[in-house]
Design a protein that fits this description.
Pfam families: BBE, FAD_binding_4. With about 450 residues, this protein is α+β, with helices and mostly antiparallel strands. It has a domain at about 150-250 and about 270-380: Vanillyl-alcohol Oxidase, Chain A, domain 3 (3-Layer(aba) Sandwich), CATH 3.40.462.20. Helix content is about 30%, strand content about 25%. The chain is built from 13 helices and 16 strands.
């Protein structure tokens, strides 16, 4: 029977608790969630079942000037997030979560509990960005914490995309978001909204761009930078809020009414559970005006508020780390990452569900000429089974062939080393799933 390893929460294709190809058992780590922070050494041990919210809360308990460069959503589990890379508002300054892992506790196929020294550098390399579930069960990670200022500034402003200033802003953002001060990260969400309703109840659908940012410093310097680099946004002082680093996670998780920090400890999202499908891309050259217009036109084809496109900038520290430093290869040359996302009510019938999935697949196909190619890169933590699956756990040749489809998209040239490590540390393919790293073919 296959082993499915479930950590603290979130899995885009559900591979931590379902299987399409074999009977399976779930190793559920959610109760392994203790966190120990060492302020003097600027380090922390966090068990794999903890969430990002729990981690940030525990760090803030010990220090207001330490943080960790991981994701924004507080209910994401650290186990899978770290093992697939893990980026967020600190990544342009400090790299990924996986770049700042300094040790781990892993149970291998033989049942041994290994640390960095006993597992060796090849396996330690593989589990930081290569998807640890292909190699064993990570039960804890040791993190190198990073410095954060006492005050950060945030904003979240919406602009009508149909206005010329917003169109100019989107193009300027494409050219400059990866090049601005590494203390500033501006994240963009494109979506449809109901802009107005007439007397007869007819609704006018508009397009909106949400600009969300964290700046590691005060509002005065932030306003100066924004006026220099993105004057079209027209950012005002009243749009910005100064707060502590940990409070910024309350802000971006929608807690904006004075909620206590303890809400970060809630493991379950407050919103209604929805079905969803996501895909991702990397952009190396600014998307031309006509193509951007075509993407926005396709946003209108999905039900209002059900589909959106997120643009997350890279640059800074991400450009300085080698593609082969860890398995995550999407470094210098990438302006930003795109996430295409659609969600729908679980109660909708199969026909409606297929409609939503077809929409996001068509949008992804439309974007083909404007994103990275050879390979068309994608982010492992936004796992996508459309790219191919390992169909037969007994047929290593078939699995190896399938991995040649999805593997280079996630890992580029790092796939070969991942296959080599897998073959050495798990030669019986004990840890396997629909997109697990295959064994090296025997000739």
């Amino acid at each position: 029977m296959q082993i499915r390893t479930r950590s603290g929460g979130h899995d885009f294709e559900g591979l931590s608790y379902v299987s399409k190809i074999s009977p399976f058992v779930v190793t559920d780590l959610r109760n392994l969630s203790s966190i120990s922070v060492d302020v003097v050494r600027k380090s922390a041990w966090v068990q794999a079942g903890a969430t990002l919210g729990e981690l940030y809360y525990k760090i803030a308990e010990k220090s207001g000037n330490l943080g960790f460069p991981a994701g924004v959503c507080h209910t994401v589990g650290v186990g899978g997030h770290f093992s697939g890379g893990g980026h967020g508002f600190l990544s342009r300054k400090y790299g990924l979560a996986a770049d700042n892992i300094v040790d781990a506790r892993l149970i291998d196929a033989e049942g041994r509990i290994l640390n960095r020294k006993s597992m060796g550098e090849d396996l330690f390399w593989a589990i930081r960005g290569g998807g640890a579930a292909s190699f064993g069960i990570v039960v804890a990670w040791k993190l190198q914490l990073v410095d954060v200022p006492s005050i950060v500034s945030v904003f979240d402003v919406n602009r009508n995309i149909e206005h010329d200033a917003t169109k100019k802003l989107l193009h300027r953002w494409q050219r400059n978001a990866d090049k601005v001060d590494e203390d500033l990260t501006i994240f963009v969400v494109l979506r449809t909204v109901i802009s107005s309703t007439d007397e007869k109840g007819n609704k006018r659908i508009g397009l909106e761009a949400s600009f969300q940012a964290t700046f590691h410093g005060g509002v005065d310097r932030l306003l100066q930078l924004m006026q220099e680099k993105f004057p079209e946004l027209g950012l005002l002082r009243q749009d910005c809020i100064e707060m502590s680093w940990v409070q910024s996670f309350l802000f971006f998780n929608g807690f904006r009414n004075g909620e206590p920090l303890k809400v970060l400890l809630n493991r379950t999202p407050d919103s209604k559970l929805l079905s969803f499908k996501a895909k991702s891309d990397y952009v190396k050259e600014p998307i031309p005006h006509d193509a951007l217009h075509g993407m926005l036109k396709r946003l209108r084809q999905e039900d209002v508020g059900r589909g959106w496109v997120e643009l997350f900038p890279y640059g800074g520290k991400m450009n300085e780390i080698s593609e082969s430093a860890i398995p995550f290869p999407h470094r210098a040359g990438n302006l930003y990452k795109i996430l295409y996302y659609v969600e729908w009510d679980e109660e909708e019938n199969i026909t409606a569900s297929k409609k939503h999935i077809t929409w996001v697949r068509k949008l992804y196909n439309y974007m083909t000429p404007y994103v990275s190619n050879n390979p068309r890169a994608t982010y492992l933590n936004y796992r996508d089974l459309d790219l191919g699956v390992n169909n037969n756990e007994e047929d290593s040749k078939s699995n190896y062939t399938q991995a040649s489809n999805w593997g280079p998209k996630y890992f580029k040239n790092n796939l070969k080393r991942l296959i080599s490590v897998k073959t050495i540390v798990d030669p019986t393919n004990f840890f396997t799933h629909e997109q697990s790293i295959p064994l090296l073919l025997k000739h």
